[in-house]
Amino acid sequence: MSLKIWLDGQLVDRADAKISVYDHGLLYGDGVFEGIRVYAGKVFEGPAHLRRLYDSAKAIRLEIPIPPEKMMAAIEQTYKANNFTECYIRAVVTRGVGDFGINPRNSKAPSVFIISDLINVYPKEIYEKGIPVITASYIRNHPSAQSPRIKSLNYLNNVLAKIEANDAGVPEAIMLNHAGNVAECTADNIFIVRGTQVQTPTTCDGILEGVTRKVIMELCAKNKIDCIEKTLQRHDLYIADEMFVTGTGAEVMPVTKVDGRVIGSGEPGTLTKKLIELFHKHVRG
Ligand code: PMP
After folding, report:
1. Which position among 18, 42, 70, 151 bears the catalytic label?
2. Which atom of ligand 1 is nearest to the CA of 208?
3. Cα(22) to centroid of ligand 1, in Å?
4. Confidence tier at 3 by pLDDT (50, 70, 90)
5. Ligand 1, atom 6, residue with closest C-alpha
6. What is residue 230's predicted lDDT score, i.e. its pLDDT?
7. Which domains does the chain have, with CATH numbers?
8. Which mutation among 55, 158, 248 tests ligand 1's pocket best, with the greatest number of atoms within 8 A of CB?
9. Which residues lie closer than 8 Å to 53 by C-beta, 6 or more apart?
10. pLDDT tens digits, one per residue of 87-106
11. What is the rounded distance in angstroms from the CA atom of residue 152 to the CA atom of residue 24?
12. What torsion do the CA atoms of 67, 158, 212, 84 make, to the nearest 10 degrees?
């Protein structure tokens, strides 16, 4: 059976799920998106993802043609049509078909599409060993340019940072912000542990406010683990006792080396392992 994709109100076969080469999402990266997981047949943190999608759209003056309830119904319709109970969802809203000018006024109607598919996750051993990362020379967007809090179709800085990671032979890169402070990875948020305290950059440090990040902070609160949002410098990474990154795709991934500096003992730390366990229990019951 061919994978079904939701495209502007209809479920179509993957081979027929096409958008115009005049779409401003493609020509100018003019659009927003969400990456969402389905666990045990249910959308994980649906309201938080929808909120971020509609907030991102509002920030770029893009009116999503359907209300959040309809978007959620469309998401559910899509993965159910493909008989998935565990999958990744990509919901995308583009400015739609326009002309060669950047003016969004010339785009008649935004386009919405929803893909549900299996996700390539890191192998289990990697979660047990942790990953080495580097800090990238590319920074997150300056907040006076396009806010990094918008999940837009403009990921070029992050793509370039990922290429730096590829060149360095590591799976991820940490991006700093315009002030030189730690922001996040190319598609994940970052946490460190210092003593018994979990620390993560604040929402004003050039990050996307990750849904997984929020869940981790809630799990810390529930389990009486001290967790704070704090501006971090690269030096804080180098001297951290533990480190992990969080994201919809990666979930919670330990980091054991940064720019050649071994983190803690060089193995995933105690609090990191505890949070991985709590997260798994939380999503899979
Ligand atoms: N930062 C960036 C830049 C991302 O693209 C993502 C993935 N959406 C994240 C952080 C993690 O966010 P979430 O936990 O919502 O997937």
Report:
1. 151
2. 1
3. 28
4. very high
5. 187
6. 98
7. 4-117 (3.30.470.10), 124-284 (3.20.10.10)
8. 248
9. 32, 33, 34, 64, 71, 91, 93, 151
10. 999 999 999 999 999 999 99
11. 12
12. 60
C-alpha to C-alpha distance for 60 and 144, rounded to whole angstroms: 13
Instruction: Check residue 284 and give its pLDDT.
Output: 87
Q: Is the CB of 95 under 6 A from ligand 1?
A: no
Single pTM value for the model: 0.97
Closest atom, ligand 1, to C-alpha of 186: 3
List the strands of the sheet with 4-7, edge to edge: 10-13, 4-7, 111-117, 87-94, 31-39, 42-43
Beta strand residue intervals within 48-196, DSSP E: 87-94, 111-117, 131-135, 172-176, 182-185, 189-194
Tokens of 217: 């902070």
The span from the CA of 76 to the CA of 44, in Å, is: 11
Mean pLDDT value of segment 44-50: 98
Q: Tell me how crowded residue 182 is: count the other CB atoms within 10 A of its CB.
A: 27
Predicted confidence at residue 143, as pLDDT, reads: 85
State if residue 251 touches ligand 1 by the CB under 6 angstroms criterion.
Answer: no
Give me the mean pLDDT over the 110-117 stretch.
98
Cα distances from 206 to residues 12, 125, 184, in angstroms, run 37, 31, 8
**pLDDT, averaged across the chain:** 97
151 is catalytic: yes
pLDDT in tens, 123-142: 999 999 999 999 999 999 99
